[in-house]
């Protein structure tokens, strides 16, 4: 799990968020009010919910484009539970929360695959294969 996670505030501009993503080489950022996770913002959110509306990314706030209905794992959950959730949700990363639902990190499929017990988790390869299948365009 990565514990040093960069976040973005809901009142930050889309331009600020995009610049942060570019600087870090990432395509998504957790949106936090203090330490409390309230959503996530992806580069796709910025394009589809922001730029496509014709409004200025300097004037639009993250809260206007972020995804609020997100999934997470609790830090005390074991790898098997987290992997099963990632597989069901078709995601490569999950936010990790403490008991008070504050963000404490991000766990990735790579984190699970490299943990000492990963040899027992043959599902890691299956999950990576399933999640990595290309999606089909919606028509």
CATH classification, class level of the largest domain = Alpha Beta
Instruction: Count helical runs.
Output: 5
Bin the helical content. Answer: 25-40%
The CATH topology of the largest domain corresponds to CBS-domain
Strand order of the largest sheet: 3-4-5
- How many individual β-strands? 5
The overall number of domains is 2
Oligomer: single chain
Radius of gyration over all CA atoms, rounded:
16 Å
Protein name: CBS domain-containing protein
Keywords: CBS domain
Pfam families: CBS
Domain CBS: 1-58, 66-123
Describe this entry's structure for a reader.
It comes from Reyranella soli. The chain is an alpha+beta fold and 139 residues long. The protein folds into 2 domains: 1-70, CBS-domain; 71-134, CBS-domain (Roll), CATH 3.10.580. 32% of the residues lie in helices and 19% in strands. It has a 3-stranded mixed sheet. Helix 3 packs parallel to helix 5.
List the helices and strands and how they pair.
Elements: H1 14-24, E1 28-33, E2 36-42, H2 43-50, E3 72-74, H3 79-89, E4 93-97, E5 103-108, H4 109-113, H5 123-131
Parallel strand pairs: 3-4
Antiparallel strand pairs: 1-2, 4-5
The gist of it:
This protein has five helices and five strands, in the order αββαβαββαα.
């Amino acid at each position: 799990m990565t514990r040093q996670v960069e976040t973005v505030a809901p009142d930050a501009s889309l331009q600020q968020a995009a610049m942060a993503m570019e600087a870090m080489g990432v395509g998504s950022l957790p949106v936090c009010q203090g330490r409390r996770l309230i959503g996530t913002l992806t580069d796709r959110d910025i394009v589809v919910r922001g730029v496509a509306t014709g409004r200025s990314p300097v004037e639009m706030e993250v809260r206007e484009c972020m995804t609020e209905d997100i999934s997470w794992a609790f830090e005390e959950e074991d790898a098997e539970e987290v992997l099963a959730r990632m597989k069901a949700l078709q995601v490569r990363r999950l936010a990790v929360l403490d008991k008070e639902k504050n963000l404490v990190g991000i766990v990735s499929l790579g984190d699970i695959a490299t943990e000492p017990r990963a040899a027992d988790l043959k599902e890691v390869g299956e999950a990576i294969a399933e999640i990595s299948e290309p999606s089909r365009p919606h028509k």
